Amino acid sequence: MRAEPATAAQPAACGRLRLLARAIGLGALFVLACQTPAPPREGAESPARWLVLGDSIAWDGRWVAELETWLVATRGAEAPELIDCALPSETIAGLSEPEHLQHGFARPCLSERLARVLDGVQPDLVLACYGMNDGLYQPLDPQRSAAFRAGIEALVAELERRGIAFTLLTPPPFDEARASVGRGADYDAVLESYSAWLVAQRTRGWSVIDTRAGLTTRLVRERARDPNFTFSPDGVHLDEHGHRAFALGVAAALTRDGVPEPVESEGDAAVESHLAHMLDSLDPAPARARILLLRDAWLTHTGHTRPGLPTGLPLDEAQARASELRASALRGLHVRP
């Protein structure tokens, strides 16, 4: 579904569409500016910079690398640069279960570091995926649900205040049969509730890609062939096939509507079949090397409260190496061995 032309009653939606169009290099959708754009980065030139926020599923970097590989293959030098600043264990709700202290720390919350990350990265677009940790692997609860919604609202408000385009991604399915947490909590129903609320915010002009719906459809299809099939061997974290399917959902939404702005259907089989074939032929390893290099550098540079993560290189050094990796990727597409 494409958004209707802006009217005097739609300044916020107008601004989101215009910023999204700029962020992905498609040109302005509207002549009149409806929001104040983000300040330019020092010495910034194209390509656009997309910031990825989320928990350990995004921190892993595999779906991020798959998406960037596809973007480079289809857009060349105009492809955006993806910066992965996701953080394992993080929530957007600001909650932490007592049992998590056995790991030696309470769950970090995005609000503690958001301003530092945005100030440093200065993104053109933010991709954010939260929810998996936010229900604390417990049954659906009104207070926890309200905390999740409040965290998302706060993120969106800050991005709009700064004039930064955004796309929210729904959390992937939870596989209770394989999980060591959340057993008996019907936790996938919690994530379904969070996802339904996110998708409903499209009526407010929010950009939301329902990656969960695509993963669930593929999971049902694969389990018809193999009842033991899963995207999450531990119930939570995606395996290689899960990361591929997640990236496919994002790429399909970008392909279908040009910009990731309200998409009613995630099930265009022809689009997804074409994209799957393309991703099968591309090797995301070089992109992942660049993404992980910058991930560790940016997380170290901007700071966080999550112990046990790698210490990144000094940011200048990491960016220089990352530029070399991107230039190598642009000189020729990397085909899977």
Descriptive notes:
The protein has helices at residues 11-23, 56-59, 62-75, 114-121, 142-162, 187-200, 211-225, 240-257, 269-280, 285-302, 315-331, and strands at residues 49-54, 81-84, 125-129, 165-169, 208-209. With 337 residues, it is α/β, with parallel strands linked by helices. It has a single domain (11-331), classed as 3-Layer(aba) Sandwich (Rossmann fold), CATH 3.40.50. The protein is globular, with a radius of gyration of 19 Å. Helix 4 packs across helix 10 (285-302). Helix 6 links the parallel strand 4 (165-169) and strand 5. It has a 5-stranded parallel β-sheet with strand order 2-1-3-4-5, with helices on both faces. Helix content is 46%, strand content 7%. Residues 1-18, 20-40 and 258-267 have low confidence and may be disordered.
Short structural summary:
With 337 residues, the chain is of the alpha/beta class. It has helices at residues 11-23, 56-59, 62-75, 114-121, 142-162, 187-200, 211-225, 240-257, 269-280, 285-302, 315-331, and strands at residues 49-54, 81-84, 125-129, 165-169, 208-209. The protein has a single domain (11-331), classed as SGNH hydrolase (Rossmann fold, 3-Layer(aba) Sandwich), CATH 3.40.50.1110.
Q: Would you list the SSEs in sequence order as H and E?
A: HEHHEHEHEHEHHHHH
The CATH homologous superfamily is named: SGNH hydrolase
Number of helices: 11
Whole-number total of structural domains: 1
Number of strands: 5
If classified by CATH, what would the architecture be?
Answer: 3-Layer(aba) Sandwich
Distance between the termini: 38 Å
**Low-pLDDT residue intervals, each spanning 5 or more residues:** 1-18, 20-40, 258-267
Examine the coordinates and then state which fold CATH places here, giving the name of the CATH topology.
Rossmann fold
Biggest pleated-sheet summary: 5 strands, parallel
Shape type: globular
Task: Give the C-alpha Rg.
Answer: 19 Å
Widest sheet: strand ordering: 2-1-3-4-5
Residues in helices, as a percent range: 40-55%
Strand content: 5-15%
Output the structural class.
Answer: alpha/beta
Mean pLDDT: 83
Instruction: Give the CATH level 1 class.
Output: Alpha Beta
Oligomer: single chain
